[in-house]
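U., I forgot to send this yesterday:
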Amino acid sequence: MSEQSQDSCVSIVQITDCHLQPQPSDRYRGCYPDARLDRVIQNIRQINVREGRFDHLVLSGDIAQSGAQQAYQRVLDKTLDIALQRHWIPGNHDDKQCMSAYAAMQQKVVLESDWAMVLLDSTSHPDGVGSGSLSASELDFLSTIDQLDAKHILLFMHHPPIEVGSLWQDEIKLANSDVFWQQLKTLNKVRAISFGHLHQELHLIKQGIELFCTPATAPQFKARQNKPEIEDDVELAKAAFRILNLHSDGSITTQVIRVD
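Result:
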């Protein structure tokens, strides 16, 4: 049971798009990504002191900008005690071989209370500029998830499975999103999908399924642009993370927290 709640709520903290460089002193898009991540983790620790540790931490891709092994180790060291369990999935910038060395982080299915968290790898068939797909084996696996011993399912992936009105980002979304949504039409337990990649917050609904995009700990991008533009709104530019609370009735309460 969650340290944060006395009921059957499952508590999750999602961190995404850290883009850590090989060394903490290395910059990314004009900032120090390690320092931004550290501020996020400090905020999460403050929540832990008040409310208890989260049940799960999900790192949803682009953890390391160039796949440096030392960057993954730093993330593991930094997040050691902020949740009872930790999980990660790759993004298009990650090195899956480096990540696979940390077997405890590689779970595809996590069962808790009435829920299953399913962590999908959306980095198959990369196009070299940021897009990715679900592989045939991943789609085969997806087709079976209604058989899991859970009433409700939350999917995590890196790439957004929808267009968001930014030309350049829509070109690097989940490339086989049409197949993905056709697959979901055959499933009855999926309640929500949470992802990253966009470096901005979104909440949409498609086919009765909630979609959450979590902002980055690295610099954010402006929404609805034809080309990449770094967010310059003081509030929206802050490093951020998402809290999700999964309730036994299948509902989800969620909040994005932005950190000074």
